[in-house]
Amino acid sequence: MATVAPAPKTVNEAESKLLESALTLFSEKGYEGTSIREIIEGAGVTRPVLYYYFENKEDLFRRLVEIKFTEFTNQIEAIKSSVPTCADRLKAIIRKEFVIAERSPETVRLILQVFFSLPQQGPRLDKTRLAHARFRLLEDIMRDGLERNELSGGDAQSLALVFLGIMDMHIMAKSNRPETRLTPDLADGLVDLFLAGAGFREAPVTALVSPYTFG
Amino acid sequence: MATVAPAPKTVNEAESKLLESALTLFSEKGYEGTSIREIIEGAGVTRPVLYYYFENKEDLFRRLVEIKFTEFTNQIEAIKSSVPTCADRLKAIIRKEFVIAERSPETVRLILQVFFSLPQQGPRLDKTRLAHARFRLLEDIMRDGLERNELSGGDAQSLALVFLGIMDMHIMAKSNRPETRLTPDLADGLVDLFLAGAGFREAPVTALVSPYTFG
DNA sequence: TTGTCCTTACCTACCGTTAATTAATCTGAC
DNA sequence: GTCAGATTAATTAACGGTAGGTAAGGACAA
């Protein structure tokens, strides 16, 4: 046997397999609905291995959420500094989130699960901190838009909450009905609608077409 | 032959105590996070009593959701026939939902939990059917509004989804931060914003004030 | 006597977690 | 270079606890 270069020996292969398996399961069945036995089975390791790399189930969940959440927000935050106007920023953000939701729905489901979980559901982790981070970003953009007279109609927090509602509702819809397509066109249309409103006008700015058909 | 649900028998005290206790617990800790031991303790009955009135934990959850969901939608559906114009219908609906969310947050949390749960989370129940019923109502109203030239900007489904997003995001916000006040003014403001958009105009139609302060 | 409502006592399966131990790898004194 | 010793990584086998669920039967009204 020719000795090839020493196997990459990806540091902590077991650890990343565990994280991967945990992501799949937690994002489909939730925290309580997933057992440690399923996780280790999916990762192809034995149980004590999990306890070697993680303190316990909660620690595994928390670290997973932390990793995915950071990945997620880093991509979104990069947008603010590279795009100047409010409308374009909103479009860039919602397009980006749609791309992520299409490419790795598990990640998005995991994050939304944390945002929208019941008060006492899941492990103790600072949900507010995470939701806050995302909210603040939108709030800043809205405040900017208001100051530069690109927006009106409410304070920055209200506008941020409305926009998040529109965006998240669509991402949720995809999570429940994977055939839903979150296209860039849809993203732009939603921002246009957010800006122009749905009240009647002769020449509507936008003509959204629903991403899916119910029933 | 469809299995006909038995006529609403006289609900026994033990049965209603169980439903009440289950509502409290399920709406705070979720389905998997709640044990039947906690439920019976909260209801002040013994375990076999639960199994006397309900097939099992799943059955209890399903019947509870069915009851609360029907209560909920009945109140909302009444609005459509009693209010003529689109804008007023939307305002009436969101006001009503806000009132319900203020008065019985547990009910709302339970329902939203079903709508926004993970694909394999919780007991097998037809989430789509429930979500669908609510969605259809909004869709009908939007279609009506489009036909009567009270709305534009997209198809009925898109508008319904956007509106639901705005509304539900606020209800969720209250669920996570009970100090949030879902007032009639906020409700009206959200509809105005939905109709007029957040794009700048000299005299904004609405001037929303956020129902809470983050941090 | 029959059907309703509730009790005591118990079952099995699975949960998260751990002890005890071994295989593999690295370290440094000689 | 060799080899004791520490370190790291994984194993087997079980722990106590709790989960959902049940068998068998008693009290009591119709």
Give your account of this protein's structure.
Two copies of one chain form a homodimer. With 215 residues, chain A is mainly α. Chain A has two domains: 9-54, Homeodomain-like (Arc Repressor Mutant, subunit A), CATH 1.10.10; 64-198, Tetracycline Repressor, domain 2 (Orthogonal Bundle). The first copy, chain A, contains nine helices and no strands. The radius of gyration of chain A is 21 Å and the shape is elongated. The N and C termini of chain A lie far apart (60 Å). The interface between A and B is large, with 70 and 70 residues. The structure holds a DNA duplex (30 and 30 nucleotides).
Task: Give a short synopsis of this structure.
The structure is a homodimer of 215-residue chains. Chain A is 66% helix and 0% strand. By secondary structure, the first copy, chain A, is mainly alpha-helical.
